[in-house]
Structure formats: C-alpha cells, structure tokens
C-alpha cells in the first residue's frame, strides 16, 4: 500500500491543477480560485483534494514500478 501524501502535498498539487484547469479552459474561468473555494465550500475542497490525493498516490505507485 502506498503512503498517503501529506495535506501540504495535496494542497500544492490541487492549486497547480486548479490554476491549469482555469488557464486551459477545462472549467469556467469565473470559478473561484482554489483558495477561495476552500474558504467557502469545505465539501468541494474535500472532494477536489480527494481526487488530487488519488492522483498523487497513483503517480507515486507508477514511478516505483519503473524504478
């Protein structure tokens, strides 16, 4: 079983993903920033962070397979 990323790792990755998503048009540009969303919608933060955490765990597992 892969170790879970820290909250700081998840939040840093989530900020990058959210900023890229807005920049690339993956979601609407008028959406709140990640930090604004976190401050006003703890459920959305939890769900978004959960997805990012799963991505980090999968990436870590994939990198260990190639080593």
Note down, in words, how this protein is organized.
With 67 residues, the chain is mainly alpha-helical. The chain is 75% helix and 0% strand. The protein is built from 3 helices and no strands. The chain has helices at 7-24, 34-40, 42-66. The two termini are 17 Å apart. The model has no long low-confidence stretch (mean pLDDT 89).
What's the short story on this structure?
This protein is mainly α. It contains 3 helices and no strands.
Count every helix, treating DSSP H or I runs of 4 or more residues as helices: 3
In angstroms, what is the radius of gyration?
Answer: 13 Å
Strand coverage percent: under 5%
**Helix and strand composition category:** mainly alpha
Q: Let me know the largest β-sheet.
A: none
> H/E element string?
HHH
Uncertain spans, ≥5 residues at pLDDT below 50? none
Give the total of beta strands. Answer: 0
Give the end-to-end Cα distance, rounded to a whole number of Å: 17 Å
User: Any idea what the shape is?
Assistant: globular
The overall pLDDT average reads: 89
Amount of helix: over 70%
Q: How are the SSEs placed, and which strands pair?
A:
Blueprint: H1 7-24, H2 34-40, H3 42-66
Labels describing this entry:
75% helix; mainly alpha
